[in-house]
Amino acid sequence: MFLTQYARKVTLVVRGGDLRKNMSSYLCDRVVANPQIEVRYHTQVTAIEGAEHIGAVHLRDEDGNVVREDTTGLFIFIGAKPRTDFLPPELARDDKGFVLTGPAVAKLASWKERRLPEALETSLPGVFTSGDCRSGTTKRVAFAIGDGALAVTCVHNLLGTYATRRIDVLNETSADRSDESH
Ligand SMILES: Cc1cc2nc3c(=O)[nH]c(=O)nc-3n(C[C@H](O)[C@H](O)[C@H](O)COP(=O)(O)OP(=O)(O)OC[C@H]3O[C@@H](n4cnc5c(N)ncnc54)[C@H](O)[C@@H]3O)c2cc1C
Hints:
Elements: E1 10-13, H1 25-33, E2 37-40, E3 43-49, E4 56-61, E5 66-70, H2 102-106, H3 141-181
Parallel strand pairs: 1-2
Antiparallel strand pairs: 3-4, 4-5
């Protein structure tokens, strides 16, 4: 929709056969009603031509037919996998690979700490995550920014917990010593 303000024609290349599966219906309605937008279903970009700038793309439909379309721009709108497979297995994830935090971690048998996990703490105590790779988040820029800020608060909370515990331990130790001296 945004690009139609600047381009005469926008071609939406969709690998699947249904825009509504992954897009809000209000947006689909606007896309379909816009005469400047052509939607090509069951189609993939198979090649990009150009030396310093894009000059054309090759589009292949489901029957294998390839057409060459002149264009000066290509915007990729793909990416919903969390790509968290590089993380160690001790860091629990949901069935789609998004990292579990806070209340979800508290329910895990593997959580052995004597305290509840912080809101953005993972199943590895002291390791935090925020943004798109976190399970249950809204995959939006504004959300990710807020989540990042919350992660800092969680770190401060945890450091505060350890600091208090250290004071408790020190108090216990000095009390023990004073008991021994009597
Ligand atoms: C095509 C597309 C369009 C979008 N449009 C919108 C929109 O219009 N409005 C909106 O609000 N949101 C939009 N989003 C969602 C938005 O981009 C995300 O919600 C936001 O970027 C999440 O921020 P993040 O910091 O959690 O993750 P990311 O922005 O994904 O940042 C994660 C970073 O970690 C890096 N990384 C990954 N693995 C490793 C590793 N092993 N070691 C080191 N670094 C690593 C990545 O390179 C990346 O830089 C869109 C997303 C996509 C894919």
